[in-house]
Structure prediction request, 664 residues.
Amino acid sequence: MKKLLAVLLALTMVAMMAISASATIFTYDESDDEYWDEDVNMLDHETYCIVTQDGTVAQGFGRPSGDNLDANVLENLTPGWYEAVWLDTATPDVEDISAVEGKVGLVLRGSSTFTEKTARVRDAGGVAALVLNNYNAGDAGTEDVDPETNEITMSHAYVGMTQTENTVPNVFLTTDIGTKLISEATGKPYKEIIPEILKVCAGETTFTGIPVGGSTYVFIGLISDYNEIGEFSEDKLVPADKALKEGAPSAADIAAPEVEAVDLQMPTDLAALANDGSSYDTAAAAAAAIGTKPIKDYTYVNGTTGNSNEGAKNLWDDDTTTKFCTSSFPCVSIAKIDAPLAINGIIMATANDNASYNGRSPNEWGLFGSADGVIWNPIAVGDETFFEETDFTYYAAKIDATEPYQYFQFQNYSTTSGTFQVSEVVLCSADAASYPASGESGNAMIGKVIGNETGWDGTAASGAASAFDGKAATYFDPLGVGDGFCGMEFSEPYILEKVAILSRSGWLDRFAGATIEGSNDGEDWVELWCSDEAAPSETEYNIVTEFENNYGYKMFRYVNYTNHGDVAEVEFYGKPGTAEAPAPAAEEPKTEEPAPAAEEPTPAAEEPTPAAEEPAPAAETPTETPASDNKPAETAKSGCGSMIGGGFIVLVTLLGSAWIAKRK
Prediction:
């Protein structure tokens, strides 16, 4: 009997090992699903995660935000295990951080910028940086740590990683996972680490003083990579020379920007610029009100970074749904235009939530111009009174014409709330290309461009916006016949009065099949006009004044279902309103034909005599079915663990039966 029980116990242990070996165990008890997931099948995660040696997994938040920072993306790293070295705040006060060479730096937030921290890791030969939050909570303290388990129960904090140069792949981690990593690297319990971190958070010191150089090991990659590579062992460490994926950019590979983003001296002899006393829905309307023309095409050059997807380049993209938003000052954004122009007006727009979050408009802003990107001259300065606390609204001011400039820098030093945001900066010039450019009379309809953002060559230069830029040399080039369109969307329905169309030079035959359509929902489109011939001229606009189904629509588009459909310019003219579609003509009643005479019924065929019935089969012995107790059946389990577990159950049953038989 004792031997039998020993065998059963051994088999039970084998079965349990087999069941657990197929899963990754996440051991952090107080995990927050918003930051990581205890589900072992996180194969749908599309971004890199950090996994510690005991299986705790954290998704990296606060990724580097901004533009032209390709070297800072964590996904540049080869998936695998890395040695991670504690570097405190990595400020100059922490003198020796050489231990990070060829490894990942664990860097505490505070006392210096994210750029300065990650740049120091780069300069010391580190391959990546994990920036750890310093709590950033006024009421955080040792009471947030369980003295028995050392688990942190305080809330997490999300921070945008504003950076200004390419350094190393890096990411921001929340307080709980960060403190866990510090503890693993230094051997200190949480309750000894937290008070020192809080001193940095409060600005009492620039670094914690916890000795640097200690290390732990972290996995960096997708969860699918982790499941493939497995738990830590030294032979799984990624060599320093293999840390970057093949083809991934490094800071050394990326050319410096054309113009350096520097803090320019604000002039003291210029009065704050005031707006013209009105607000506008579009930049075109604002420019018209101050008697000038907006410059539409800008190339972003450089700038300080903003919150995630809210970088400096958004100031120049002609889209009020994007914005430049940051809490780092001074904030700078630089753009250039195709050729130098004299500036005689400035237009700026509020963002999506200024009405809800007051005090975000720039309070010490300046605009500078340069012919070469080196020597800068002030154009205007101002404060938050240029704006009102509204959303998606343009404000404008006319200024004396400047010297011609090609480069422009906007910068701001402060806001009353501590957070800055502006959605658009639009400069004006009397010599700017304007839309509409045909010279046609009538009410030109100016709305939001809709359609393909990029065209046949995959660039924005051939996208829908090029059909509405007032330039004959640019054009919309769809993806194919009937594949893509360019159009405009308006806030209210319009009835078309005229459409002016300029064909793409050299492709007049593609005008055949050109179609103008209207819609109120972007799904159901109604044909209003269609061309059945090629365009007669490369330089003259084709003017359309007769339309079908012209009952008022919020959207109009140019599309071609017959030819490729290139077009240089499209201009819509009309008036707000709708018209009632005529009722369909009543159908004439149809004369019914007399029904055909009924046919003589065919006599039914006689039914065949039925065959003799076969004897009924013998009744089966009924099988007793156990009651279900109204419980759902358990889901069947699969995998190695289930097979062994099932086999174990069968084996136990057989052995038990044999033992009972033997006893009898």
